[in-house]
Each structure stands twice: as structure tokens, then as C-alpha cells.
């Protein structure tokens, strides 16, 4: 897809997120919306995948370490054709496929079950190391939240990825500055993150996580970087795209009411109309 087409898809993913959360009456809109441009770029431009064959051995792998942002992953999988969009309306409902956190055993296209924060990078390392050992050329992408940077396992995994020279892994840090209880600096400051990741042996690229052109360029740079893993330090806005949700910590884990959902969808459709 072109830059414009990915922008349109990111907008559609945001609409899908709101559509999912309304019947569920629960979920995590803020961090799903902040990651929409990143996920749209990965699934509709960057990653080599086959919706008709979710277990294709040569596919690129994706790990959503911040598993509570499952709505944006489900939206991308549905739009890509891994399953029907009708499934989105069953989010978090008993007996339905799409639960509150991704389940690799029940949902086509999910490469790793996540939800316990801090564990996704370790799993991604395993996939990347397996690719090296099997002489495969697939790449592994892992989206992490800035809140989970306070987890020690993240830094053990960061150290291991550099030690094993896993240049086939790209980490993307959704750096929106907010977590469930407040700002990341207030809850547990992990700044300066750029310096830390570089000190752990990673190639770090700073990007605007909502700028599709920057994301295109950054992913190309990551693929060209040899001998070390790459991290995209992606500055984002929690609740991006919906005026009353942007930068509001209260929307970390609360679903919109019917009236709020209507307003949110109206704003997103207005934006879509300007994208042509």
C-alpha cells in the first residue's frame, strides 16, 4: 500500500476499534488508538504474511507485547482477511473468539498470546533466534508499551537480543507517555529511553508514530541495519484521532458510551473524508 492508502487504513482501524468496544462495554481504547498507524503500516505495507495460510512457515511474525491493545490487532487481522469483520462485534464476550488479550490458539493470525506485560520481547527474541538457526529470512516485529519499560524482563530481553545479534527483530515502542495510573514519569520514570536502548546495544530510530512516511523509512532502515536489533522509539498520542480521548489517562481502559462512540466515529469519518 502507498502512504495515503495506509493512512486511510489506519483511520479504518480506529473506526473498527470503537465499533468493537461499544458492544463489549469494556476494553482499552487509548493504547489501541495510539498504535493504529504503526499496526496499519506493519500489516498493510511492511509484513510478509498470508491471511489464507496464517501458519505459513516463512511469514513475518508479530508480537503485541502490550496485549491489552488487542482491539487494534483484531481490527488489522479482520481488515486483512484472517477472519470475518463480524467477529469484531464479539470482543470480550463469553464463547467468542476475540477475548480481552490475544490468544494464539484460538485466533487466526495471532503469533503469540500476550497480556502479562513485559514478556513480549522475550517471545519475539525466541522467534528471531529460531529464524537465524533455521536460516529463514523472516522478520519479527514486536510492539511494546512505554508502561512496560518498568518491567525487568524487558531489559533482560533487550540485552539478549543484542548479545545474539538479532538483526531480524524490530521493536516498536508506543511512546504515548500514559499508563493506567497516570503518566509514565509519575508512575515509574524510565527516562531517558533512547540512551538506555542504545546502551543495551540496539540501533534506535526516533519517529513520529503517527507519521506514515517516517514509519516507512524507519522500517527500511531497520532492515538495512546488520549485526544488532533495531528499536523504533515512536512518539504517539494516547487516544489518537478522537478529540475527547487524546492524552486522557482515563481512556486507558474504559469503553465509550453509545453517545461517545457516535461522536468518535463522526470525527473519524470526517478525517477519512479529507483523506479522499
Ordered list of secondary-structure elements with their pairings:
Layout: H1 3-24, H2 29-34, H3 36-46, E1 61-64, H4 70-80, H5 120-133, E2 140-145, H6 152-163, E3 169-175, E4 178-179, E5 182-183, H7 184-188, H8 193-199, E6 203-208, H9 212-224, E7 230-235, H10 258-274
Pfam families: Transketolase_N
GO molecular function: metal ion binding; transferase activity
Organism: Desulfitobacterium metallireducens DSM 15288
How does this structure look, described?
Its cofactor is thiamine diphosphate. By secondary structure, this protein is an alpha/beta fold. The chain has helices at 3-24, 29-34, 36-46, 70-80, 120-133, 152-163, 184-188, 193-199, 212-224, 258-274; strands at residues 61-64, 140-145, 169-175, 178-179, 182-183, 203-208, 230-235. The strands form 2 sheets. A 5-stranded parallel β-sheet has the order 1-2-3-7-6, sandwiched between helices.
A few lines on this structure:
The protein is α/β, with parallel strands linked by helices and 276 residues long.
- The topology string of helices and strands comes to HHHEHHEHEEEHHEHEH
Strand order of the largest sheet: 1-2-3-7-6
Query: What fraction strand?
Result: 5-15%
N/C terminus separation: 15 Å
Count of discrete structural domains = 1
Amino acid at each position: 500500500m502507498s502512504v495515503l492508502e495506509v493512512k486511510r487504513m489506519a483511520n479504518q482501524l480506529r473506526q473498527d476499534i470503537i465499533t468493537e468496544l461499544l458492544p463489549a462495554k469494556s476494553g482499552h481504547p487509548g493504547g489501541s488508538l495510539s498504535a493504529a498507524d504503526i499496526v496499519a503500516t506493519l500489516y498493510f505495507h511492511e509484513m510478509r504474511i498470508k491471511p489464507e495460510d496464517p501458519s505459513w512457515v516463512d511469514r513475518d511474525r508479530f508480537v503485541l507485547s502490550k496485549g491489552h491493545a488487542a482491539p487494534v490487532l483484531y481490527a488489522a487481522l479482520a481488515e486483512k482477511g484472517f477472519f470475518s469483520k463480524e467477529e469484531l462485534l464479539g470482543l470480550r464476550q463469553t464463547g467468542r473468539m476475540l477475548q480481552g488479550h490475544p490468544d494464539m490458539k484460538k485466533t487466526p493470525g495471532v503469533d503469540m498470546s500476550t497480556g502479562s506485560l513485559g514478556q513480549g520481547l522475550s517471545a519475539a527474541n525466541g522467534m528471531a533466534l529460531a529464524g537465524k538457526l533455521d536460516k529463514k529470512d523472516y522478520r519479527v516485529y514486536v510492539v511494546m508499551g512505554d508502561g512496560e519499560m518498568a518491567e525487568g524482563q524487558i531489559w533482560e530481553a533487550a540485552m539478549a537480543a543484542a548479545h545474539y545479534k538479532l538483526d531480524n527483530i524490530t521493536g516498536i515502542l508506543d511512546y504515548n507517555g500514559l499508563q493506567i495510573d497516570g503518566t509514565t514519569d509519575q508512575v515509574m520514570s524510565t527516562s531517558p529511553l533512547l540512551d538506555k536502548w542504545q546502551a543495551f546495544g540496539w540501533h534506535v530510530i526516533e519517529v513520529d508514530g503517527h507519521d506514515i512516511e517516517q514509519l516507512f523509512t524507519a522500517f527500511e532502515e531497520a532492515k538495512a541495519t546488520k549485526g544488532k536489533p533495531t528499536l523504533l522509539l515512536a512518539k504517539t498520542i494516547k487516544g489518537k484521532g478522537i478529540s475527547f480521548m487524546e492524552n486522557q489517562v482515563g481512556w486507558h481502559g474504559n469503553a465509550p458510551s453509545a453517545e461517545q462512540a457516535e461522536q468518535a466515529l463522526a470525527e473519524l469519518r470526517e478525517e477519512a473524508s479529507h483523506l479522499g
